[in-house]
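$ ./design --mode recover --in tokens.txt
reading tokens...
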């Protein structure tokens, strides 16, 4: 029943609208940081809205009966990575500050939903190793931009822990890449071998 609803075209259209609006809001949320970001870093700073943009494109392509495995790979790895990352950063903010605004809780819920979407819609994705390689380079390159060139999103007092956050984020990226390989490539190969 749930699987039928998830893959129903009307539900996917609704999800497309929700993600499109969330993407627009996400870029707006980054507005103050983007205003002071050097132009050559602009594509790499708004991580979460770019992740939901990839997913929005994936949903749009699905609705018009097309696929782009590169977009699918970018959507999966960035949704999982930045979905989990934002939940972790807001929890860390709660620990460090002792309080979290309602927007922090809203960001935790919406980013958890981002990561969940990636896993739920993985069966619709047709990714090969070359596509995952491109997506892996993208998210690892973002680590360099965020933590070497100091473009990490601003989170209250968390700048004091930038090195530690950068280290954990690197391993979160590795986890995400391995998860993507397991779910999107290894499982596909396994199901193909069973049908032969």
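writing sequence...
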């Amino acid at each position: 029943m749930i699987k039928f609803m998830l893959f129903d075209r009307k539900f996917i259209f609704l999800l497309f609208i929700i993600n499109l609006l969330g993407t627009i809001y996400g870029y707006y949320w980054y507005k103050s940081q983007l205003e002071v970001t050097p132009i050559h870093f602009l594509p790499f700073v708004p991580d979460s809205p770019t992740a939901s943009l990839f997913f929005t494109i994936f949903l749009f392509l699905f609705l018009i009966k097309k696929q782009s495995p590169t977009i699918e790979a970018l959507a999966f790895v960035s949704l999982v990575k930045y979905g989990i990352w934002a939940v972790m950063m807001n929890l860390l903010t709660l620990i460090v500050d002792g309080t979290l605004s309602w927007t922090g809780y809203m960001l935790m819920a919406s980013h958890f939903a981002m990561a969940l979407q990636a896993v739920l819609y993985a069966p619709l994705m047709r990714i090969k190793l070359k596509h995952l390689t491109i997506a892996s380079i993208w998210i690892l390159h973002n680590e360099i931009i965020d933590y070497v060139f100091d473009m990490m999103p601003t989170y209250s007092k968390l700048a004091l822990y930038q090195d530690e956050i950068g280290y954990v984020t690197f391993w979160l990226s590795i986890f995400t890449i391995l998860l993507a390989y397991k779910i999107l490539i290894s499982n596909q190969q396994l199901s193909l071998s069973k049908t032969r």
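exit 0
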